[in-house]
Amino acid sequence: MPYFINKKKERIRYKSLRGKSPGIIFIHGLNSDMSGQKALSLEKFAKINKFQFIRFECRGHGKSDGKFEDFTISDWKKDLIDIIDNIAKGPQILVGSSMGGWLMFLAAKARSTRIVGLVGLAAAPDYIDEFYNNLSLKKKQEMNNKGNIKYSSYGFSYLIKKKYIVDGRKNKILNKEFKWNKPLILIQGLKDNVVAPNVPEKIVKKIKGNQMQIILLKNSNHRLSDEFDLKIINESILSIINN
Question: Using CA atoms, how far apart are residues 228 and 219, in angstroms rounded to an integer?
């Protein structure tokens, strides 16, 4: 599988399909990778419909270079922009899952002329404050004293450095006006226990634009990977393309 090599000589693994415009870029979530069901389903959808498609892994994830704990939201934003600038051709639709939804918004701001639509899958922009606030007092003290903590969630255990929190706060997008007058579709499961079901509403209240939709799926969870979920994701992308 090919790699893009950035200016620091670090490898970012990706897979791409050639095809029609607009292209579709899938952005995975925190501590995830590009081989999940959503990414593979989107690839199949792109192949059938002959669309350009890219899935990739941020540094510190999957088979891309680096250790997870050494990177921040700014680094992963840079990875996505490297993919847009160097691998993708022409206009793109960004599909961001969970943390990928945050990166999607950051890239849409940075490359607004290239991005023609956004699809958020349990999108979690600006989650860093909530993450920090939910830490126990002991963990917060440990973070301040040691500069890092061991964090466990959903069967994963990983190291979180203080710079991850500090950098995340600098990358918030919903604390100032955000204009986006192109299609934005936010798909959210009501049984999601990671991203609260009211988050899409908070997002659209902060963004100025008139092409926004929220799709709430009654029986879906954070993964949004059931057959019905995947069908809704594909239909959402088609609706942007046919817009």
Answer: 10
Specify the CATH architecture of the domain 3-126+173-241. Answer: 3-Layer(aba) Sandwich (3.40)
* Residue 135 CA, distance from chain mean position: 23
Using one digit for the tens of pLDDT, what is the confidence trace for 30-67? Answer: 999 999 999 999 999 999 999 999 999 999 999 999 99
Residues 6+ positions from 49 with CB-CB distance below 8 Å: 19, 20, 238
Catalytic residue (one of 16, 61, 126, 222): 222
User: Between the CA atoms of 10, 13, 16 and 21, what dihedral angle is there, to the nearest 10 degrees?
Assistant: -50
Side-chain half-sphere CA neighbours of 243 within 13 A: 18
User: Which H/E stretch holds residue 51?
Assistant: strand 51-56
Q: What is the pLDDT of residue 3?
A: 97
222 as an active site residue: the answer is: yes
Exactly one of 32, 41, 97, 98 is catalytic; which is it?
Answer: 98
Q: b vs e for 121-148, b when ≥16 Cβ sit within 10 Å of the residue's Cβ?
A: bbbbbbbbeebbeebeeeeeeebeeeee
pTM beyond 0.90: yes
Phi/psi at 97 (5° precision)? -100, 120
Q: Is 226 a catalytic residue?
A: no
* Residue of 192, 220, 229, 236 with catalytic role: 192
Q: Is the pLDDT reported for residue 232 higher than 80?
A: yes
User: Which strand ranges, in their side-by-side order, compose the sheet holding 115-121?
Assistant: 3-5, 11-17, 51-56, 20-27, 92-97, 115-121, 184-189, 212-217
Which H or E run includes 143? helix 137-146
